[in-house]
Design brief:
CATH topology of chain A: Arp2/3 complex 21 kDa subunit ARPC3
Order of helices and strands of chain A: HHEEHHHHHHH
Number of helices of chain A: 9
Number of helices of chain B: 3
Oligomer: heterodimer
Structural class of chain B: mainly alpha
Order of helices and strands of chain B: HHH
Strand order of the largest sheet of chain A: 1-2
Largest interface: A-B, 75 and 63 residues
Number of strands of chain B: 0
Helix content of chain A: over 70%
Strand content of chain A: under 5%
CATH class of chain A: Mainly Alpha
Strand content of chain B: under 5%
Helix content of chain B: 55-70%
Number of domains of chain B: 1
Number of domains of chain A: 1
Structural class of chain A: mainly alpha
Radius of gyration of chain B: 18 Å
Shape of chain B: extended
Chain lengths: 234, 96
């Protein structure tokens, strides 16, 4: 749902640029504090993977297609702040090199997908992992949050279009939510598959709160081994 | 991540970009479809502020759309690895 130039009114895109510049600044500062050496190559690989995956449009209902957003996937592995930075980098790159999403609407696209989708999605993921616990909690949380991130970003996009006077909210909001509720199922499935695969092969790559890789209180002890073996593996 | 895992990760991303992207659905995405249905798609036509070097992942001068997309995907994937890695290193240095 990369908004092109021309869809948003000047007031809307300038406001969205301002909010997302501030938000991204906060993300960069916080991500810097939470960044660990072992996360550096992971952030490179994830940026590459999410860019590639975003090129693959899969068909959904009624002659519509959708592609992975990847925000929750990035946040589950890198934390919400670095995750948002990854999505913002992908969006900026797509806009400047491939004209995928407009330059005026880049602020809105970052706000919808990198900030609200990724950071918002991450907090839903944390809530579900806390409620359910264990590996099941991580996978369920990732799936639900991935679906939510797409629908939340689409809703905000509809709101921006309505504020711009492009389309009335009563029409554009339900239309965007219905289509993206279906696209979000794909997002949830892909995110869930990748997160379960990483849980099986490298559970230590899952982000567990800020700091130096110290386990957050209340986390499952079954990861103790993987966490402990982290330095030798890195 | 071990070196081998980094290579596998990049290889996976590259294979998606190289081999899957030419087969991606060309149907309009969710927003485009809604814009068409609700009749505001033309608002975006000719409204581009910036002329990107490779608009819509199509290399200027390349006939085959499939090859063009695969090439865009490959270049983009490698560049994004560099960008992600570079930003992460900068963040790591600043955060210390």
């Amino acid at each position: 749902m990369h908004i092109p130039d021309g869809f948003l009114s000047t007031t809307t895109w300038v406001s969205a640029w301002t909010v997302s510049a501030g938000g991204l600044g906060c993300c960069l500062r916080t991500a810097g504090r939470a960044m660990q050496d072992r996360m550096v190559p992971l952030m490179g690989v994830l940026s590459a993977f999410i860019f590639a995956a975003q090129m693959i449009n899969f068909p959904v209902m009624g002659g519509t297609s959708g592609h992975l957003l990847g925000g929750v996937l990035a946040a589950v592995l890198l934390g919400p702040w670095a995750g948002a930075v990854v999505i913002a980098c992908v969006l900026i790159f797509q806009c400047l090199v491939f004209q995928d999403g407009g330059l005026t609407s880049l602020g809105a696209n970052i706000l919808n997908m990198a900030l609200v989708g990724t950071v918002g999605g991450y907090f839903l993921y944390r809530l579900v992992t806390k409620l359910l616990g264990g590996q099941k909690g991580i996978v369920t949380g990732a799936v639900l949050a991935a679906w939510f991130s797409v629908v939340a970003a689409a809703s905000l996009c509809a709101l921006e279009l309505a504020i711009s006077g492009t389309s009335p909210l009563g029409l554009v909001l339900p239309a965007m939510v219905v289509v993206h509720a279906v696209i979000g199922i794909g997002e949830g499935m892909v995110t869930g598959l990748i997160v379960s695969f990483i849980l099986k092969t490298r559970p230590d790559l899952i982000y567990r709160g800020q700091g130096t890789g110290v386990r957050v209180q209340g986390e499952e002890p079954e990861y103790g081994k993987a966490e402990g073996g982290l330095d030798e593996k890195a | 991540m071990r070196k081998r895992e980094i290579v596998i990760g990049i290889a996976a991303a590259l294979s998606i970009a190289l081999f899957l992207s030419p087969f991606a659905s060309s149907w309009p995405d969710g927003l485009e479809k809604v814009a068409k249905d609700l009749g505001f798609i033309e608002k975006g036509e000719g409204a581009e502020v910036l002329k990107a070097p490779i608009p819509d992942y199509k290399f200027p001068g390349l006939e085959s759309e499939g090859i063009s997309t695969a090439l865009s995907g490959t270049i983009g994937t490698l560049a994004m690895f560099g960008i992600g890695f570079g930003v992460a290193r900068l963040l790591r240095r600043k955060g210390q």
